[in-house]
């Protein structure tokens, strides 16, 4: 949809972008097409896709045009009504499944090889972490540029943190493209970035251990100025940001081994 069409639809229905829901509608059709191609790259024809926050359907329409079977999760009731009208045919033939509700509550019920969407800035991190708990092989999101940089950050940097470790332990991370605020309505105050997360063939941490590992890492980053030996049951004089994801896993496994041997 063009910017003029977006304004017209919102005005006709008495809707407006809700800041509390982080609504910024994409109005660049070429960019929407590119995002869909990136999200579906390498996926099987007719692959299932979960889209978080379809908004007015810019990305949704492009995914459907490329043969994807889309489950779209939308929290805004007014937008759901519009989407049901716009995509009535696709809903009728089963190519689109539109679900009204909070994506954080809906995601655990779903399975798909691809998860994508323009994530609301205020809740992007919880949505990323919830998406990682699923079996999707490819996660392709538009996020605030600062968040994308944190996801891809290397050890030693100021923005390298617990989120960097947990995401990189499960996926490879690539910042694919920066998106200016001008391609959205209303334009956000900060730039966005398209980020690709591809599941590692051999994740560093098994699915059943992710919660314990996450708690360990978060405790290690809770006071960045302190040495890890002052925060965790380890003999390591480094600070949290100096360990790679692989080193974090090794450190955590060492504590597990120590607790097991101590109980013999």
Written overview of the protein:
The chain is an alpha/beta fold and 264 residues long. The chain folds into two domains: 3-199, Vaccinia Virus protein VP39 (Rossmann fold, 3-Layer(aba) Sandwich); 207-262, no CATH class. 40% of the residues lie in helices and 19% in strands. It has eleven helices and nine strands. It has helices at residues 3-13, 29-40, 58-65, 77-86, 88-92, 103-106, 124-132, 145-152, 162-170, 210-220, 245-262; strands at residues 25-26, 48-52, 69-74, 96-100, 114-118, 138-144, 171-179, 184-185, 192-199. The strands form two sheets. It has a seven-stranded mixed β-sheet, sandwiched between helices. A two-stranded antiparallel ribbon has the order 1-8. Strand 2 (48-52), helix 3 and strand 3 form a beta-alpha-beta unit. The longest helix has 18 residues, at 245-262. It is elongated and about 65 Å long.
Give me a quick take on this structure:
This protein is of the alpha/beta class and 264 residues long.
Structural class: alpha/beta
User: Strand count, sense and closure of the main sheet?
Assistant: 7 strands, mixed
Task: Work out the number of β strands.
Answer: 9
Distance between the termini: 66 Å
Classify the fold: give the CATH topology of the largest domain: Rossmann fold
User: In what order do the strands lie side by side in the largest sheet?
Assistant: 4-3-2-5-6-9-7
CATH level-1 class of the largest domain: Alpha Beta
Spatial extent as radius of gyration: 20 Å
CATH superfamily of the largest domain: Vaccinia Virus protein VP39
CATH architecture title of the largest domain = 3-Layer(aba) Sandwich
Strand content: 15-25%
Mean pLDDT: 94
- Assign an overall shape: elongated
| Order of SSEs | HEHEHEHHEHEHEHHEEEHH
Helix percent band:
25-40%
Number of domains: 2
The unreliable regions are none
């Amino acid at each position: 949809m063009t910017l003029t069409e977006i304004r017209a639809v919102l005005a006709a229905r008495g809707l407006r972008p809700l800041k509390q829901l982080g609504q910024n509608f994409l109005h660049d059709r070429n960019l929407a097409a590119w995002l869909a191609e990136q999200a579906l790259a390498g996926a099987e024809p007719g692959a299932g896709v979960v889209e978080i926050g379809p908004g007015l359907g810019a990305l949704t329409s492009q995914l459907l045009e490329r043969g994807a079977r889309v489950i779209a999760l939308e929290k805004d009731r007014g937008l759901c009504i519009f989407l049901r009208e716009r995509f009535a045919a696709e809903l009728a033939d089963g190519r689109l499944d539109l679900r009204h509700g909070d994506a954080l509550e809906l995601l655990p019920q779903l399975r798909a090889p691809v998860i994508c969407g323009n994530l609301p800035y205020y809740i992007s991190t919880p949505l990323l972490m919830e998406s990682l708990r699923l079996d999707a092989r490819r996660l392709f999101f538009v996020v605030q540029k600062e968040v994308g940089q944190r996801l891809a950050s290397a050890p030693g940097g100021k923005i390298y943190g617990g989120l960097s470790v947990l995401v990189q332990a499960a996926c490879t991370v690539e910042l694919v493209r920066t998106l200016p605020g001008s391609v959205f309505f209303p334009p956000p105050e900060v730039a966005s970035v398209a980020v690709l997360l591809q599941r590692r063939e051999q994740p560093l941490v098994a699915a059943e251990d992710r919660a314990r590992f996450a708690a360990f890492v978060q405790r290690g980053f809770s006071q960045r100025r302190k040495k890890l030996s002052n925060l965790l049951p380890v003999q390591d004089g480094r600070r949290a940001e100096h360990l790679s994801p692989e080193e974090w896993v090794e450190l955590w496994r060492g504590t597990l081994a120590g607790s097991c041997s101590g109980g013999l």
